[in-house]
Structures
1.
Amino acid sequence: MSGVEGFMYPNEIELQWSVLIVLYPFLTGLVAGAFILASLERVFRVQAVKPTYRLALLTALAFLLVAPLPLQLHLGHPERSYEMYITPHKTSAMAMFGFVYLWYLMAVLVLEIWLDYRRDIVVLSQSTTGLKRWIYRLMTLGSSNLSERALAIDDRVGYLITLIGVPSAFLLHGYVGFIFGSVKANPWWSSPLMPVVFIFSAMVSGIAAVMVLYMLMMWVRGEKIDMRCVDTIASYLCYTFIIDFSLEMLDLIHRIYEADESFRSLDFMVHTKLYMSHIVVQIMLGTVVPIALLALTQVVKLGEMTRKRIYALAGCLTLVGIFAMRWNVVIGGQLFSKSFLGYTTYKMALVTREGLLVAIVLTVLPLVILWVLVKLLPPWPERESGSLPEAAPAN
Amino acid sequence: MSISRRHMLLLLPAAAVAWKHVLAGTPESSPNYTMSQHWWGMLIDLTKCIGCGNCVRACQSENEVPDGYFRTWVERYHVSDYDIENPRVDSPDGGKKGFPPAKDDSGKNFFVPKLCNHCAESPCTQVCPVGATFVSPDGVVLVDKKYCLGCRYCVQACPYGCRFINPKTETAEKCTLCYHRIRQGLTTACCESCPTGARQLADLKNPNDPIHEFLKTHSVQVLKPYMATHAKVFYNGLDGSVR
């Protein structure tokens, strides 16, 4: 068969996990990262990032709603996926996804967003008319108490949920890393570092996504970007990225130095089939360049416009780099034979169930959901003050 | 129609041979098959394998394996005297139609039949999110087609490349050790079709099974022992270069 070099076990020639499974850790990572950024303000009291707090929560929700779709579309029998909830196999890392996902969606994200927006929702349910009024009324869940005491309880419970949410975000994405890292049959995946690398790369991608989205939305709305806020986010992005890159390099150096039986095969792959996506896109364009750009803003005093441009460029490159990292893990891990004697090729289809078109739709879909969420629950209440006198956040 | 004595003398031995073949395909009486009394595995004597591909063909027809996918296959190794760590391996169409003549006579050439190792500590059953694949009480790794989600995690987890997704059922598939046959006292299709007896079904719980004598008197190895999967397909004469 074309696309095969050397010897593959005959059942290995066809790749099992497609671009959709690349999207799955990418989207989940954005969720975890965006939530951790939101928690900076709530738990760690970093006031500078406050303008992005609500946007980060809504971004996390938008991406979380789409995260299981690539998995569902990839299954041979999606109609049986509910079995994972009814009869989960306790030794399977994948079986726990349903529970971790539900926990994170319902117990953490939705609850926190609802508590944070409850005051706004109640006010909007009274000030709007028509269909919108009904939607907001439904969203109050029958709770329209806006007394000082009720709002104080909202705030306190919200804080507690964020406290639980931070380790939950780590669990959500660390667990995704474990799905790959625990496959002992595959030396490209099998590493105890995998969950840690996934957590840090998730933080990097989530922080970058919220930073870019915030700047984009401010630009679209014709409002001034809070430079103190983006400067702080950019510095967090820079430091997190350095840790992430160090961990990935540690993994790489360890592999090169140990040079076990799989090394020659993996080394060959990185120099051939994965050269573009791993060396050029992931490491150079998607990691070294954005770290260098962000580091530049930390050590050199630059003008506001220059900083904005650098942040936008570094943020976009970061997202490309993290996507490439997911690609190299998922697709790269299937391009070589477990016999270490040959290589296959991934041929992405265009319009099939697991093709490029579906992948593009699934990447754009969270942005559409975010747009709806932002319209429904504006994350910038202070600007809406003209029409919403009491819509300021509870705290 | 009258049958002469001459005809009778010819027909009787022919009927006896035919009857023997009929019996060979008839299950031994096993109405009381108790799973807990068996622990199935397989012995593959590589010194006997001639790479004819009979086993692959028998398996495909017995189990309706789709073209391009394999529950069992045969690999041909060519190991040079100078570079034993880098063997050249081929398996054209899983060795189903045998092998073309070897191009290189230097070094050594040998065949290695492969199939699911029916591991006692199988990574594939460990990762299945719904438990659709499991180790049966008699030691056979099976897949419940009506339950499998088709998530392909088990295919990724198998270190030996033994699993695939059947394009018709969209579920995971693999060697069942011809479970439908062995429960009835028959051997597997691959073992039955092997002309040299290189493949032998083995019941490790049966004290009278010749496997015990063989394991005692031969240097037997499993594939990738470092994977610690407790594989139950034992190879006699396994070269260190085999992966």
Note: Chain B touches chain A at residues 68-70, 73, 75, 87-91, 93-94, 114, 123, 126-131, 147-153, 155-165, 169-171, 227, 243 (CB under 8 Å).
2.
Amino acid sequence: MVTSNFDYFAPSTLDEATSLLSKYRGEAKVLAGGHSLIPMMKLRLAEPGILVDIGQIEGLSYVREEDGGVSIGSMTTYREMATSSVIQSNYPLLADASSKVADLQVRNRGTIGGSLAHSDPAGDIPAVILAIGGSVVVRTRRSSREINIDRFQVDLLTTALRDNEIITEIKLPGLASGTGTAYSKFHQPASHYAITGVAAVITISGGTCTDARIAVTGAGDKATRARRTERILNGKEITPAVIRRAASRAAAEIGDALNEDIHASAEYREHLTQVHAGYAIEQAVAAAG
Amino acid sequence: MPVTTFGDSVRRTEDPRLITGRGKYVDDIRLPGLSHMTFVRSPYAHANIKSIDTTVAANAPGVIAIFTGADLQEQLGGLPVGWLLPDLKQPKHPPLAFETVRYVGDAVAVVVADTPYQAADAAELVEVDYEVLPAIVNAEKATKDGAPELHAEAPNNIGFDFSVGGGDWDEAIKDPDVIIVKEEIINQRLIPNSMEARGVVADFDPGRENLTLYTSTQIPHLVKMLYAMVTGTPEQKVRVIAPEVGGAFGSKLYLYAEEVVCGIVSKQLGRPVKWIEGRSEAYIATTHGRDHIGIAEMAGKKNGEIVGIKIELYANLGAYLSTFAPLIPTYFFGLMLGGVYKMPNISCHVYGVFTNTTPVDAYRGAGRPEATYVVERMVDRFAAEIGRDPVVVRRKNMLASHKNGREVTLGVTYDSGDYKANLNKALEIFDYPAFRAEQRAARREGKLLGVGLSTYIEISGAAPSAVASSLGAGAGLWESAAVRVHPTGKVTVYSGSSPSGQGHETAWAQLASSELGVPMEDIEILHGDTDQGQFGTGTFGSRSVSVGGTAIHHSVTKIIKKATLLAAHLMESDPKFVTFEGGSFAVEDIPDKSMTFQEVAGAAYSAASLPPGMEPGLDETSFFDPTNFTWPYGSHIAVVEIDQDTGKVDLIRYVAVDDVGNVLNPMIVDGMLHGGIAQGVGQALTEAAVYTDDGQLLSGSMMDYAMPTADLFPKFETDRTVSPSPVNELGVKGAGETGTIAASPAVMNAVIDALSHLGVRHMNMPATSEKVWRAIQDAKEAQRAARAAARNRGS
């Protein structure tokens, strides 16, 4: 359980970090909290020649209310999000999901930026951010851009992030009044990753659902919007029957790409996704009320 | 800490250093010139080694040497088997494979380098050309004709064919009133996962030609003896040291390949070498536990009387015989099949089977959890069949109480017990009738609530050597203890039984303190260094206090006897009027005549005035060999609630009433019980080693092998009954494995009880959410089909 050789840089500014990424493009990996990358390196599943540790860079860890929404620095840890009153009041599901990631040690180290960049198919945060909506702010040595979260997760462990870019911030929109949120997760007993996790952000106005964003993690290659479920909810008065019908479509987008492993068959995963979609919708609707 | 007494919950004296990181484990040992080793292990479950090319690896930075199995074939010898069953097949077990690899993880070469990182990097550069062979992982399938064979010596992969029994099952089931229930019972393979994996430092001194082997082991003395035998090294030239050992659970109870290879490599290189096992490496290179496939039958009558039990078992041995592998699924399994019941007819037949998997050997409980699971599960299965409460069936069949030995069907003698009283106490704490009422109400609301019992008994206190020897043991199973009183009256105790987390140092000091009247801080406990004390046996089979502690008691008794004679001499009194209490010698009826233990110790060494014929000094050694095992027992009750939607099982209540005889330190016993219950629950609900058909371990790390975590558990409600053992003077029985043995069947019986009204009668472990969910779906489907059939009949 030792990594192969690598060179280690711990720059103190973003400029230095992005310069290193440009200089060693393709060879270098960004090290944030390290709780996904380091285990992979110890198992020699990842053997980057160069590590750029961005943990020494000041000013990447914050939660700020701005432009009617909230901006979160990429190095903000799960624990900071779980305990942030701003996040608790604006996006209860993000606080809740952050409090359910792995264990306390991981929550003290793991970061929102690291989680999004790693894009573990069973990570909690990608689904939650997908359900909230918003964008990922990234920068290179010379430029920066915002990537809409809907276009950020590309494939298994693959994102729209280029290998000379660093995530600096996650911008979340303000949620309309009458919006309720929830994250419901069934965890794998060993790793505590999600076998399935469903994030729901639902706005109720005048007794009907005016906007529903539902995202699923754990079930497929990457966090995915459950758009058919959303369509069933949108414009409807939310009754138990509507929830049942909507939840039953929660894995429809994933289709044949449902994961299957020693912890859950595809059939069981699909079932759990439906069950937890039901829980998440129910809780979000209740919170919206 | 002051003078303690037997029965106090003295706090563990080891804990401050262990908790603050001051414990010294194998990996903490640094020696001048230390080099580091990485083993090159087979990625295939079964393959011939065509060639090994080390040229690239040998030129990698920092590499000192590379040895293949062929290079060291002569020096390494073969790993030993410590338990010889009749007709046991003993295929050669080379520490480094040189012709064929037989499981993923089988080592084929070793790289020695200046740093562990360099050794790991270079190991990746060793090129092994394998010819992959068909593999087999399932013990039952491995015995079928046409299955891949591992060893020419073992046709159909059968290593042994073992039977034990009592009464006459075949005759008993001829009774027309007898009902038989039958289930396939799988006791899944488990991976021990001690907190500290294994590790070895070997330091050969080329000048004195002796070897010091630091190793994380439960049996330093036996490692010394076996290492000497295997490698042809004179035994007095080998010193084995087990420093802090961070958990073992049976998995460090053997002579391992790595210990032999490290010793030989250090000798070859003339410098110390270190090997530290990684966690992923431990998953494939350290022994596994359990892995039984059995067909169990229980016979009984409608009135609840159990007539007998029968089992046909395939026990997976893995690729080679580990040191105690032949013992675990045979005597430690078969001899338990009577449970706490009269069980007049018992038939047990076991095939030990080689497969292309990591070797299987003892894992906490070692044979006894497997047997208890069969017995307790089948008692419930039988009770369900005849429609009676499992408590009623248990009570009807329990053995009567006895205080001084009762021979049971299998010919063994249980030492002492009042099984019904113990069960009654557990039921009282639990309030069984109240639970059944709650369960009925819960079912009306559609909730799934179940209770499970396990009234277990187990063999501990290994072992009476002559008995063990007659059953195949290759070594004596007594224990030794030296009690050395210093001239100042301070005391050093050396025990041959060394800890791997149990708290021996506290227990030994507490025992010596209570008997000598010396404060605990004046007593130093030594263990685990074969040069510090006399030969010993080790820590396993819940033996340490009953065998090792009794050896200490014997040495203390000799010390007190000699000191009394000396005190009498010094106080000019007849020894028969000298009493010893609370650390001081007094003369009966003469209040002003007394001497402290420390004063007498000083006199023993100053030797200024000794009774005629008495040697100076106060230093005694004892070897205690018990006349029987000890037989702890108890009643555990588990309650689970099952989530209908997902099948998830929640353990919501756990009551344990154990009888481990007299209790030296209740806090330590409770601690071991809690850990044991957690392990047993782990087997019932979460843990499973899963192989692909071609022998790749899918559950190869803690990311996929589900160790039980604290969030699974309610607060354990524990209590005891006390039936002192007549087997040793302390009246103690083993307490280290009871929880593990009891918990799995209690939890599984609860799971099945929760689903019984749906028609579920059995399920194999672990009761994962998916398995339970499927059982619920299948049961509901069956109920629907039955209703449809009834409607059709009606129409």
Note: The mean pLDDT of chain A is 96.
3.
Amino acid sequence: MELAKNSRLSKIARDLKPSGIRKFFDLAAGMEGVISLGVGEPDFVTSWSVREAAILSLEQGHTSYTANAGLPDLREEISFYMRKQFHVEYSPASEIIVTVGASQAIDIAMRAILDPGDEVIVIEPCFVSYAPMVQLAGGVAVQVQTLKENDFKILPSQIEEVITNKTKAIMLCSPNNPTGSMLNKKELEELAALVEKHDLLVIADEIYAELVYDEEYTSLPSIPGMRERTILISGFSKGFAMTGWRLGFLCAPAELSSAMLKIHQYAIMCAPTMAQHAALEALRNGRSDVDEMVKSYRRRRNYIVQSFNEIGLTCHMPGGAFYAFPSIESTGLSSQEFAEQLLLKESVAVVPGDVFGESGSGHIRCSYATSLEQIQEAVKRIKHFIDNLPETN
Amino acid sequence: MKLTQKEMEIVEILEKDARLTTEDIAKMVCLSVEETAQAIKKLEDHKVIVKYISLIDWGKVEEYTGVKAMIDVKVTPKRGVGFDEIAERIYRFKEVTSVYLMSGAYDLSVIIEGKSMNEVASFVSQKLSTLDSVLSTTTHFILKKYKHDGIIFEPDNKDKRIVVSP
């Protein structure tokens, strides 16, 4: 019976592991009064001007499909945005596709470039979907682990070690979820040299590019030689606080874009029309709101990182995104144990670092996209939790 | 006074929440507690930070019967002192909570607060409109406050996000 049931499912679906985050979601969802540092999305509601633009678009009856690649006006704005903000030129007509969140962009990128058995180097700890998406596209995810000693930044030498003749691409996310680490210009240049040397592609997930706090952001395709080798993935979810709108985009040279557009048009037709109208407003008039949010995140980042270090959880200062990634090794607990006990005893939800990859073990991901009052209370409870742990040795 | 970047940060933080401790602010701007305290002191000494006050929603207080009115005032400016002299004559009244010089159809926007509508009315008719330079007044009573100085009085602060997400 079991066999018969299973045979209805594809091997690929059967082999897919459930996300480690799911377990924590189920555990926390049933509890009252939980302070959550486990949320991977902004605590801001989308700007009113953006929401209002979407309402207007509905009132005006913009409820039909758009062009497969997205509203021409929106692609124009994205092109302008990429040039102004990140210093890269993409043609709105042939090199930009508006997608259903950055997730769908990653999916079509993988499907467009991978043949069965092709390898993609996935730099961990990272967003939980990368390796499964490689797998779903028939590829093989080859994990490399960034290390705490290097502030979770990948070294080109680490990548070089796992390159084989099947390596097709590197999946890069900077600033990174869950570590908040960001590669600066020099580090990207070193990576670029390696990419050229081995004739690889890079899928650059730059969804957190707006949320950087210390250094100026360098977009990978702005490095000489990289534009032709990069599929740039971005979107509105994080920077513009628009997660629920499901709107992302990708930029890539025309040859790659046209292949991805084919898959996009068969699989999804186009991104939601009202969300596209909202995004248009976000790009045209949302800059000051983004700046305000960044300021607010920066203060909370400074606060939470210092607080963790004060209570004995070593934490590097993340350059971007909205996650702190403190080490909990000093407690003697594994990250799963720590997160589970913390939730049950103190009602604080965090995500164990190992769900994002092997080298995330011994860490927890704490999102500071929540109010300062909540962060203060969470830190207090975490301190109480640590102080009351039984002596292990 | 030209503010440093850190001082600017501190002012912005305090403007939103004046009850944060110096320790909290220090952490947020990456300064020592001492440096932060010094910076705040300097901002207070230079009157950049004028006063720490609370924003009260008096609409919630049953006993409160007070009223607020915004009055558009047209005046004749005086040679040498322009509008300043008449503005000062007006803002010195304790009933007056704000005075702004405006562009457009009238000159001064005066906000006054009284215990009752009668009190406001008698202030306008007896004190304000009888001033020499005042040509005319138009009084608008405030019926309900929805938002004041960037703060929404009844915000929907409920976190609608799911508790754990990737």
Note: DSSP finds 14 helices and twelve strands in chain A.
4.
Amino acid sequence: MTLALAVLGSAVALSGCGSSGSGSAELAPGAPLKIGYLASLTGFCSTFSQEYVKGAELAVRRTNERGGVLGHKLQLIVRDDRATPTVGVAQARDLVLSGHVKFLAGTCSSAVGKSVEQLVANPSHVIYTLGVSDPTVFSAGPEIYAFNTIPTAQIEGRNAAAYIRAHPQWKRIAVMSEDYSYGYQVTAAFRQAMRGSGQTIISQDYLPSGGSDFTPYIDKVLAEHPDAVYSTVITEDTVTLVKQGLPLGLFDKTNFFGIMDYATIDSMPQPPVGVEGYTFYPSSSIYHTPFARELEALSPAVANGGAAGDAFNQIQLIVQGIEKARSTDPTKVRDALAGGTVQTVQGRVEIHKCNHEVAMPIAMGTVVGPSHALAFAHFEPLRLVDTSKYFEC
Amino acid sequence: MSLATFIGQLFAGLGLAFVLFFTAAGLNLVWGVLGVMNFAAGSVYMLGAYLTTSVIARLGATALGWTVALIAVPVAVAALGAVAEVALLRRTYREEDENRQFMLTLALSYLIAGAIVLVFGTHFRTVSLPSALSGSWNVLGAELPRYTVVTIVLGLAVTVAIWFGLYRTRAGLLTRAAVDDREMLGALGVNVDRLYSVVFAVGIGLGALGGVLIAPQGAVSSNLETTALVPAFIVVVTGGLGSMTGALVAALAIGILESFAALHDATLAQLTPYVVMSVVLGARALMGWRGLSPASLRARRGRERAPAGSTAG
């Protein structure tokens, strides 16, 4: 209720600021181009938020060193959304109304992203680039002003199903997910994509997010004797799952397939060698692209973190949109981006016109061990899956 | 259900129960003696886990490193607890408004959490075990992680130590007397202030010990605070405020039931602590049962001793 009122109030307030006219939507020549960046510096995903900020800062620095965009120097304004929708909306509203910001980016919280997307849509017309997994953020169609820079839960679930379906000898599949909306969305997409495969999903368990003891759940899954386990357990919960799963034989007794982010694997004293993993956070080290090289040259340590690459892409989307539109009018920038292609850390990728999702590749491979020098060296062989085939536009 | 599955789930439940019990025992001791509901218990648990990562980073994941962590971390955190009790908490005991104690421990919780972020950063940390404690033992077909065995054994040892300390030592006698009548104890010449400091330090140390034990089990992150505090409160409330026996029984019941509930449904398993608490509290309300707290046991014993028809006073 409070959130709804906040969004409604903000929309009413924003409608009076007169930014929808094409003339007033253009920045004055030479004026700084402000980008508001929502970072979840506190809250459930604070672990990676400093990386996001560093990646965004690198993109801004790179652009400014080249003279800015259309003669405008970029200015990054970082705000803490605390991974909380009401706080994110309040920060976004303040940036747009008081700071006269027309370009927003960031947040690692789908709930914040969804709320802010509603705020920045009609009639305020503010471009918002973010990387979140909730597909409903982008379900309103091509009229929205938000652009997604990572594969959604729907794409992730479809990709996982494609992998499992490629192993028809695995008849009994168990699913282990996070007990919040992301886990439910990936599992739903996975189940849907598994229909007609002849393989049976024998169980789906939602593990407590941030839980400290997964042993009962692992024991339960092993007692069902699945041929394969698909896990969408992420970040620190992956560490807990791996640490407690190793002595119980989770990775020896089943064909385990799940999210294995570089940062997570790299922090494990004993990674699950031999399991199949995937990640969609674009650590630059694996890509031989101009942006990847630039990011590494600017800051190798930051470049290895996947979140930094995501934030770098979010800022790049804004910059390239402005360049394509030859305008700082958000509506023109939106129209220039949708349906086209953009250069990212991962290379040139397509932006789907129907929902503004960027078709980022998913990195997959077998975990061979941690590498403190090179991100994704833990995947061997590394495969980059083109996710365009999973879109239904 | 096969025998191996039964053993595995029972074992997992016992491991879960004893980790719950450490934090709950610290919380309970402080409540039972000082009458203070320590909302900083979750932060203390988290601090114990983070300090463990530092000790292991310096000394290595060896037997020596882990022995030092198991002893030094709870002692160091307990010492900090004693300082906080003397400097801050002591001033609130005679306040009529208990909200001040609540706000103070809540503020301490935020301070500890903030300090952890400043010192250790926001990224999670991990520590590994000595190789001897990695892996598992196969018992009748069930894989029993060695480290869980250690946790259970240590949990039993600490439980015995708490019982011995409370019921077989002079300090324990004074502690139990302080629960009954602080003023009377002071009038008899006992330094109650010092006793309170020691009890608070021991309670904090137990919470930190829980953090040490959980550190190698998963990722050490800022999530630990909430994942520890809420279940610990549930254990304390279910077992009866101030009752160590009740806390142990509640922790065992919740841990084992949660483990077996996981066989059917993970969501049901997560609800188990709340279900157990609701059932116990409901039963108490319906049957007038006061739980296993020291006060209720004393009252019950008093009723049993009193001849039929006699009245108190």
Note: The radius of gyration of chain B is 20 Å.
